[in-house]
Design brief:
Layout lengths: L2 H7 L3 H10 L21 H7 L6 H14 L7 H20 L9 H17 L7 H10 L8 H11 L19 H10 L8 H23 L10 H7 L2 H9 L4
Helix pairs in contact: 1-4, 2-4, 4-5, 5-9, 5-10, 10-12
């Protein structure tokens, strides 16, 4: 079990929200990270009160995990921090999906389609004598009934009227190096021809900002009243403007 997940599971909601608002490392609760707090100290109590809504045991658990993964942890490499932030993003989307229907077909409809599809695959000339290969393809069939990550992410942003246009794009063409492409390569061990530390650090910072905005949207706190708003970042953080040049350094 991931360190962030382990520690988050033993915290109260209030404690997690407090650490989120203060950007306190999950394993060093008395320290505030150098970029400063996410929520100004004078607004913190109001933030904690406004974010206290409960969503039921299952959804609360998903949200707790998302917050836990989003918190910094001392001693992590850039790559591990990026993967942890990616897990936070995906947990927020899971939280969103569980509140609506995000299967393309109903279970009954897809069961019928799956049965016919497997029959067709078994009879196809390329696969009729390749039972092992057919089995591998069969394992992927259930994924056909799930909306793509990019679709769910887009729907989340639409639902929450979340503007991320000033940040490094999360989704997009592989060749344009969206944040999901970096995550994919890190998780699956694909090589980078070029991965400068500065570019990786910029990507990680932007991913953190994306996740923080997503969490604030779910919690119902105005991004304009946080230190991750476009206006605040433009005034205070050089990485906010440099992402396009840093992205160009990936190859």
């Amino acid at each position: 079990m991931d360190k962030a997940e382990t520690r988050a599971s033993g915290m109260t909601r209030h404690s997690l929200l407090q650490r989120l608002g203060r950007r306190q490392p999950i394993d060093a609760p008395c320290r505030i990270e150098s970029p400063g707090t996410l929520i100004d100290e004078e607004d913190l109590e109001e933030f904690l009160t406004a974010s206290s809504r409960s969503y039921g045991a299952e959804l609360n658990d998903i949200l707790y995990r998302a917050i836990g993964f989003s918190l910094p942890s001392s001693g992590q490499s850039l790559e591990v921090s990026f993967i942890s932030s990616s897990a936070a993003l995906e947990s927020v989307l899971t939280f969103f999906r569980r509140q609506d229907e995000y299967d393309i077909l109903s279970a009954k409809e897809f069961s019928a389609l799956e049965r016919d599809l497997k029959k067709w695959l078994k009879q196809h000339p390329v696969l009729e004598s390749e039972a092992a290969k057919r089995g591998l393809i069969y394992e992927k069939v259930p994924e056909l009934n799930r909306f793509p990550f990019s679709y769910v992410f887009k729907k989340f942003c639409e639902h929450h009227a979340l503007d991320l246009s000033d940040l490094w794009p999360v989704v997009g063409k592989h060749a344009e190096w969206p944040l999901t492409e970096i995550r994919h390569r890190l998780v699956h061990g694909d090589p980078f021809q070029s991965r400068p530390v500065e570019a990786m650090a910029c990507a990680q910072t932007h991913l953190t900002w994306v996740v923080e905005r997503m969490l604030l949207s779910v919690l119902g706190w105005p991004i304009e009243r946080s230190n991750v708003s476009a206006d605040f970042l433009q005034r205070t953080r050089g990485e906010h403007q440099s992402w396009q040049s840093e992205r160009a350094r990936f190859a």
